[in-house]
Amino acid sequence: MNEKMTILLSPSQVNTAIDCRRKWGFSYIDGIKEPPTVAQAFGLALHEIAEGWLRDGIAPDLSTPEGMLFAKGLGFLPLPAKHLEVEGAFRFEDGDLAWRGLIDLVTPRGDTVRVTDHKTTSNFRWAKNSTTLRDDTQAIIYGKHIAERNDLDRVEIQWIYYLKGKRPQAREVIATLTREEINDRYVRLQEIGHELLTLKKTKRTGLDIPVETFPHDGCSSYGGCPHFETCKELHTKEEKPMSDLLAKLKGIGSNRTTPPPVVAAPPVEQVHPTPVASINPPNLTSALSTEVAAAVVKGVEPPKRRPGRPKGSKNKSAKAATPVVESAPAPVVEDHSQMQAIMAPVNVEVEKIAAAQGVGDAKGYTLYIDCFPAGGAGNLDEVLRVGANRAAEKAGMSHYRLIEYGQAPAQLCVEVRGILTDMVDNEILPDRVMVHSSNQCVQDALPELEAFATEIVRAFR
Fold first, then answer.
1. Could you count the other beta carbons within 10 Å of the beta carbon of residue 22?
2. Which stretches within 88-210 are classed as H helix?
């Protein structure tokens, strides 16, 4: 009698499958795991700091770039308390599907619960917004687990994005999903899960999984698929022995080396958080490569970190996975005066470090969106015009909006970032600028325009 086969799924596993079924097969059938990247190592370090603060009240170490960056997001988090559930592992069954995950933070908030996840990014353009967050795989799975575990009618989802680089800052994105909405959105993930289970039963290697079109959008996502050359050989007219391709495939994971963690510049000042626009996942080379090169040039030897989630995050006890709320708790009241008192020495230390490293005079502007200050303001029309022309020219198009695969906003942002960086370096960036959000070019470039702002003022509608 054959034993019934099941499959253990996670949000990241499903996202890999959405990107490319064959890529999923390489990881979850052939067992080829990519070593952690620079970005992942940095994110894991920040998660460890967040866990220490929320669970044990350990203040972030501002001598590290991860600690200083995490400090930028403290205003979006509750104070450390016993009622918080930090780094809680979970697993739930759905027939022959099983789902697992690790939630960074669960906070009781009256008749609902807030689910929080920390996200590090090199640019806010990759962030979700309150609309796209509602369809996020991780948000749906986490929300379904919490809604059913605590018998809730709705769940609040909070993603906190931490921007790395020369102008580090943090922003939050929040969406509230009803239990009905979560279950409706879960149906699609359930279908994908059953498809993956079928592939697991019927395919002996990822090389056996067909791809309708090659190359496709997933081949260039997130800096490019490491298996691209293997797939390219698979799709050539000359048939190669499967054994040769398998040998090459197995060699990819073992020959890749892990780049050193990024040594980022310290934060300079707090920026007002604002909603961010969403865009397709990055197909461009990450700016992390330049940061790594800078670290090597300066002779910085970054600390070695163990791959995986922070210490203590795996194999949680049953207690960590059980509901923390048996009855409706009292609403959580944020004590902002207490937070300010806690953060006062942190802010002073940040200023000292910034001054010591010569970054205290970083230039930025006040960005007025759909409003005009009494004292007047400049505009960025010429910056946007030049950026749009450069993006179109590089893509061989008559207009940047004609760039294929939905990459027009991303290409425009790349050019605008370069122009604004040059203006900062040459100290010609205006102190105050205004833009109209009805302008399509402004809409596309807004994440980059906001990234260079030290303050953002929006008109009320």
1. 25
2. 137-150, 179-202
